[in-house]
Amino acid sequence: MSPYSLELRVTSIYAVLQVWRRPDVHPPRLRDKGLPRSEFETEIGSVSTMASLRRHRRSGRGEEQCRAANSRLPQCTQSDITHEANQQWSSHTRRSTLQLQDDLSHHHPPLQKDPALHHPPLHHCPASNTTSRPFRLLLKWPQTLLPPLAFCLLLAASLPATCAAICPRNCTCDDEALVVRCMPSSIDVMPVTFNPNIQQLTMYSTEISTLDVISFRFYEDLRHVNLSKNRITEVAPKTFENQRDLEELHLAHNNIKQLTADMFLGLSKLIVLSLQGNAIMSLDGGIFQHLRQLRELDLSENHIEKLENQALQGLTYLRVLHLQSNKLKSIPASNLALVPDLAELSLGSNKFTEIKENDFLSMGTLKDLDLSGSMLEDGLSLESFKSLSGLGKLNLEDCGLTSVPSIPLSSLGQLEELHIGRNLFTTLPTNMFRNNRNLHSLYVSFCPQLQRLEKNVLQHNLNIKKVVITNNPQLAYIAPDALRFLPELKVLDLQNNNLHQISEDAASWTDIEHWRLDGNPITCNCSAAWLRTLMMAPNSSGKVVCGSPPGLEGIPLQSLQMKELACGLDPTMQGVVIGLVVCVLVVVIAAVVLVMLYRHHNSCVHRLLKGHHLGSRQGRCDTPYTHSYHQAYTMTPTKPVPVTEL
Fold first, then answer.
1. What is the 3-state secondary structure (H, E, C) of 288-340?
2. Does residue 160 carry a pLDDT above 60?
3. Closest among 331, 262, 267 to 297, alpha carbons compared
4. DSSP H helical segments within 165-313, as ranges?
5. For 264-292, what is the mean pLDDT?
6. Residue 549, preceding peptide bond in cis (omega within 30° of 0)
7. Exposed/middle/buried for 112, CB within 10 Å: 0-12, 13-18, 19+?
8. 100: buried, middle or exposed (CB in 10 Å: 19+, 13-18, 0-12)?
């Protein structure tokens, strides 16, 4: 129902009173506030019947027409109305009616009386049997009392419908929880007919384009307002001046281009302010000075190119600041110094290309830093994060890094969670995080050129609990002991890589509570037998599907029998291999025999090899074998020399 329904009803009643008093003058044209025709007819239908009856009576039409018109009137709900009671409140009613007519005269000026017009005498119309007794009494009252009485009765009759119209179409109004939620609709102004005590208001995807001082004037108890995804282009000064208890204000995804300090006047208790996804180009100094209790400020996805000096002045208690997806060409170090208690900072997807030594000089309390989407290929040095000694979480995804930034990260001794996915390095080297001994979570995903994990990648990170290395299309090799000897490792996720084989020694698989290898083209041969056995253990999750050989593609590894893991050889290849093995054995045995026969000098084989012909008389094997020696090798005995001759 339109927010102007109440005004329309009161105006309609006033128009009927004019017709009652002056039947020859048509009622003033009612202001159409964009209501559908059926709804507009419903609004004025309750009063048109009475106007028609009065015209019948004034024009002196027949009794039958009068009764027909009279039968269409709604029955009065009061049990009895007496002339004595009317005398007591008629004067008060007349004053109230005149006051209301005066209030309505700003939009619908009352008709001026024309002295030339002559009112015909009143012709009484006999009441039908269907007419209630109170209404018959009403018809007998003097004409001077009818307008105020009719106005009060009509207003009372319209109250139930008016109460139903308080909540506009496509809205849900919970008066017990004091919550209003409006779905997408054509509402173009902030309704003023909600319960004035509501504490939570949510309206999105409407036609509202402007917020002014009237928008929330009647809702002083609001705690939470969400006006995201509308068409708001302007927020007038002092719009929220009366919302002293408002704690959350969401104006995300509108078209607000400029912020002023007076826009937030009165929001002394505001904790969360979201202006994400607007068209803000700059932040002037002191625009947040009235938000003394603000804890979270979201200015992401705007067009902010710079922050003027003192832009963040007054945000002493700010803990969360989102500035990602803007056009900042440098880190606003001077403004960050104004928020010394900042714990979470998002600066990703901006245009700066380096981080200087003093950019985070005053950010000793920072725990979470998001730089994802910033082109920092050559912009990180040993001094970049030196001031962030207490940093616990760092996001360097999609920063164009061609190698793991081990040196810049060496100053982050308290780092616990690191995201380095979507970069361009090809290898995770040995001991790449040797100085980050408190690291407990590592995320390396969607790296298009990552190919290898070297041995002992996390050798010094004994506190590591979770490793996620997923969706790397070229990662095909994980070295033995790459992720082994990590006593605290509980989650190992290696999904959707290009692993055809993985070593049993790559990790301490039996000690890991949850591990996953889904989405890898594992070769199901004898080298995967250990993996099949491991998948039967209760700590395995997901399933491994065979990527090869061709006969086993798409089959879950755990569903195969051990005899089917034949190292990738089909029966034909197995026969060829067995035949080759037999041939090799035969050749080896024959060679051994020949060598042994050759060494036997009296054998026929030996003689044959020496050139003797077995077919001749001298060459027979049964002829005794004789051998002549050269004369030089023959010793001739000599005569002994007498002793006397010596």
1. CCCCCCCCEEECCCCCCCEECCCCCCCCCCCCEEECCCCCCCCCCHHHHCCCC
2. no
3. 267
4. none
5. 95
6. yes
7. exposed
8. middle
Q: Which two tokens stand for residue 527?
A: 């080298």
Gyration radius of the chain's alpha carbons: 49
What's phi and psi for 407, nearest 5 deg? -70, -50
Residue 603, judged by CB atoms within 10 A of its CB (0-12, 13-18, 19+), counts as middle
Burial 574-601 (b: 16+ CB within 10 A, else e): eeeeeeeeeeeeeeeeeeeeeeeeeeee
Asked if 556 and 545 count as a contact pair (C-beta separation under 8 A), the reply is yes
Tokens encoding 244: 């002293």
Residues 6+ apart with CB under 8 A from 198: 173, 178, 179, 180, 219, 221, 222
| Tokens found for residue 38 | 């059926």
Place of tokens 């070229």: 474
* Domain regions of the chain by residue span: 5-78+85-164, 521-569
What one-character DSSP code corresponds to residue 527?
A: G
CA gap 435, 460 in Å, rounded: 8
Output the CA torsion sign for 584, 585, 590, 596: positive
> How far is the C-alpha of 384 from the C-alpha of 405, rounded, in Å?
11
CA atoms of 422 and 444, how far apart (whole Å): 8
The model scores a pTM over 0.85: no
Residues 6+ apart with CB under 8 A from 118: none
As given in the structure block, the two tokens for residue 123 are 């012709």
Is residue 54 within 8 Å of 27, Cβ to Cβ?
no
Vertex 572, ends 571 and 575: CA angle to 5°?
A: 85
pLDDT for residue 34 is more than 50: no
- Asked if residue 413 lies in contact with residue 388, where contact means CB atoms within 8 angstroms, the answer is no
Return the sign of the alpha-carbon dihedral for residues 181, 187, 190, 196: negative
Tokens standing for residue 602: 């009296």
pLDDT tens digits for range 534-563:
887 776 666 888 988 888 888 888 888 877
Say how far apart CA 309 and CA 453 lie, in whole Å.
47
**Amino acid symbol at 290:** H
Name the residue with tokens 């910033």.
374
CA atoms within 13 A on the CB side of 52: 15
Gap between the Cα atoms of 133 and 157, Å rounded: 17
Model pLDDT, residue 550: 85
Query: Average pLDDT, stretch 372-391?
Result: 92
Give yes or no for residue 35 having a pLDDT over 80. Answer: no
Structure tokens at 113: 């009386």
